[in-house]
């Protein structure tokens, strides 16, 4: 909540309204996240993880749930269109929770349903509360008061700190099981890397094909690359409590994902600098 509050402080309401009208971007991300990605993730699991069904299920659960929080940090770092990425967030959150049981039933003849109250709570905590607080804070800022600038600067510049704390808490929740099953990391390494590389290249191709600008390209890449470990972990713990390997695979995955996303943000920044120099 603190991380997203800081991010939402940087978004202008006019930019968010314009982003909501970008139907082409929204449809593209939805097709990639909820049509292409589930099929691709299942195929990767079949190739690399079919000898261990719980890890395969955990891998698919991770890949079919697009990120709804920390991808905004990396989008911001890589100078993407933050308003555009924020506009797609609530749709991603609702669809992934509603469609996850469908994917699990279709692929594995199992379900991972979740109560409507949990979905409502997630939407309120992840999106509504931080957003409303940011709107109120920006309105109070517009009224003057120089002493408030330190407050705004702290939250705008501390997103990586809050991201690190959130990840630390997630690892701590399953730390003991993680140490006992470190070999899962090795099993997931190759399929997760392949997923990220192909998804990155797909984002580049689609952006060129649809003539997205640099900011839109960055938003598309992170919206389709970053995965929602906290949500998928919460579902796994409640729906598959009898199979701890599913939850453990979801805790292990960010150990691979986060360095990849950080490296991707630097690659995109460097490519933007190179393209600007060539244009000049």
Structural notes for this entry:
This protein is 81% helix and 0% strand. The chain is mainly α and 280 residues long. The protein has a single domain (2-279), classed as Na+/H+ antiporter like fold, CATH 1.20.1530.20. The mean pLDDT is 83.
Describe this protein with a few key phrases:
single chain; 280 residues; mainly alpha; Na+/H+ antiporter like fold; 81% helix; 0% strand; globular
Topology:
Elements: H1 2-8, H2 13-20, H3 23-48, H4 53-63, H5 71-77, H6 82-108, H7 116-141, H8 149-157, H9 159-173, H10 175-180, H11 183-209, H12 214-225, H13 229-239, H14 244-279
Helix pairs in contact: 1-7, 1-8, 1-9, 2-6, 3-4, 3-6, 3-11, 3-12, 4-14, 5-12, 5-14, 6-7, 11-12, 11-14, 12-14, 13-14
Largest sheet at a glance? none
Which class in CATH terms? Mainly Alpha
Query: What is the overall silhouette?
Result: globular
Distance between the termini: 40 Å
Q: Which architecture would the CATH scheme give at its second level?
A: Up-down Bundle
* Helix amount: over 70%
Over the alpha carbons, how many angstroms does the gyration radius reach? 19 Å
* Class by SSE composition: mainly alpha
Order of SSEs: HHHHHHHHHHHHHH
Strand content: under 5%
